[in-house]
Amino acid sequence: MRRGEVVGAVVAAAAIVVGVILIVTSGGSHRARPHPVPAPPAGPPATLRPALPAPPGQVFGINVNRVFNDRAYTQAQIDAQLAAVRAAGATVARTDAFWEAAEPQAPVDGRHRYDWSFDDVVASSLSAHGLAWLPIIDYTAPWAQSVAGQDHSPPRSLADYAAYAEAFAARYGNGGAFWRAHPELTPAPVTAIEIWNEPDNPEFWSPTPDAATYARMYLDARAAIDAADPAIRVLIGGLSNAAAFLPAMVRADPELRGHVDGAALHPYGSPPVVLARVRGARAALTAAGMGAVPLYVTEFGWTTQPAVAINHASASRRPADIRGTLQALGHLDCGLAATLLYTWVTPQRSPADAQDWYGIADPADPSAATLDTQAFAAGLRAAVAPDPAPPAGC
Question: Is the dihedral of CA 61, 358, 331, 238 positive or negative?
Answer without folding.
Answer: negative
